[in-house]
Design goal:
Blueprint lengths: L17 H11 L12 H13 L3 H10 L1 H11 L6 H11 L4 H8 L3 H11 L9 H14 L2 E2 L8 E2 L12 H10 L1 H9 L13 H21 L9 H23 L3 H12 L5 H8 L3 H6 L7 H8 L6 H7 L2 E2 L3 E2 L7
Helix pairs in contact: 1-2, 3-4, 4-7, 5-9, 6-7, 8-9, 9-10
């Protein structure tokens, strides 16, 4: 079991922004409370920063040059209700396990910005293996922000609000990022695959077809995590689920109805080159198979397998002596004439 130096980190109800809450409580008391010995350097520096920030605009420019990472991290948090998109994309990439350097490159900032934001407002990087904690304190709150639990004709419904941002940038994006990883997170953010540029005009149609299918898959996955289930549509959901089960069983039965021998023979038949007429004669000309094809000798199955493997039979001597052409008439040498 993991042991944390700070006992607060073992709290199962700890929220990702616990350091921010700690500093706000200290500055909210009169007079402001001092840091304790158990408050780490992140809390200590943030307390000094936030105290100076609240003193007015003239002090904030100085804070930018003293600690740019903390300044930009707090700016992301402070603008959450105005321009939340960038902060939510950072949170999703943190849940996907990306490093601060990788995220900073995507967001065009410095790694210290991501480090400060993670420590103060979205402290999840050290707790990603704790699945239930992530679900309870990160993923479900992101979902609940957009659900109105007030009793209604249709039960719970999505809020008609711009409180944070469109649900797919917070709720579904966080789910896919945490469970799918960086690649899934990236395509869920933009909807496009990277390094997939079209180099040939002939590939344009395939590119747009692939992109169209990808967008439908992405949007369907987003909708599946958001749509409401109530007494009016639950039967349709049951029907859809039943149909999916039927399709899966049909595919398995189609695949498993053949015996092992039938499967082996089928694979062999698809691997063998089948030819007829002049094409076959040209292909096997000069080979043992071609020699037997032109002879009056009929091979059994065992001899056919051996001759196909390149093992010459005793009957090959007879085939060399007696060649059959023109509907089975034996070829005679000139002396016999």
């Amino acid at each position: 079991m993991k042991v944390y130096k700070d006992v607060r980190l073992a709290d199962p109800f700890l929220r990702p922004y616990w350091r921010h809450e700690r500093v706000v409580r200290m500055l909210g008391s009169v007079p402001p409370a001092r840091c304790r010995r158990y408050d780490d350097i992140w809390i200590q520096e943030y307390k000094k920063f936030l105290f100076a920030w609240r003193r007015g605009t003239e002090h904030r420019e100085r804070l930018l040059y003293e600690n740019p990472g903390l300044y930009y991290a707090y700016n992301l948090y402070d603008r959450m209700h105005i321009e939340p998109d960038m902060a939510l994309m950072i949170e999703a990439r943190l849940l996907a396990g990306s490093t601060p350097e990788m995220i900073a490159n995507e967001c065009k900032t410095i790694p210290q910005t991501i480090e400060w934001y993670e420590r103060l407002f979205f402290n999840v990087s050290d707790f990603l293996p704790h699945h239930d904690w992530i679900l309870k304190n990160v993923l479900l709150p992101a979902s609940d922000r957009f659900v109105d639990h007030t009793p209604d004709l249709g039960g719970t419904v999505l809020k008609n609000t711009t409180e944070i941002v469109r649900p797919h940038l917070d709720m579904t994006l966080k789910f896919f990022a945490y469970f799918g990883g960086p690649l899934v997170c990236d395509i869920m953010i933009s909807g496009f695959r990277r390094n997939n540029q079209v180099q040939n005009p002939d590939d344009l149609t395939d590119y747009f077809n692939e992109h169209f299918a990808s967008q439908l898959q992405r949007r369907s996955a987003q909708a599946a995590g958001q749509f409401e289930i109530n007494k009016y549509n639950v039967m349709e959901l049951f029907v859809t689920h039943t149909r999916l089960i039927e399709v899966q069983k049909a595919g398995k039965s189609q695949e498993n109805r053949h015996s092992d021998i039938e499967k082996t023979v089928g694979e062999m038949l698809t691997a063998l080159p089948w030819t007829v007429g002049k094409t076959g004669q040209t292909m096997y000309n000069g080979s043992l198979i071609g020699l037997y094809d032109d002879s009056a000798i009929e091979l059994d199955s065992e001899e056919t397998v051996l001759i196909g493997a390149g093992i010459e039979q005793e009957s090959a001597k007879e085939a060399k002596a007696v060649q059959v052409y023109n509907w089975g008439e034996p070829q005679r040498d000139a002396k016999s004439k």
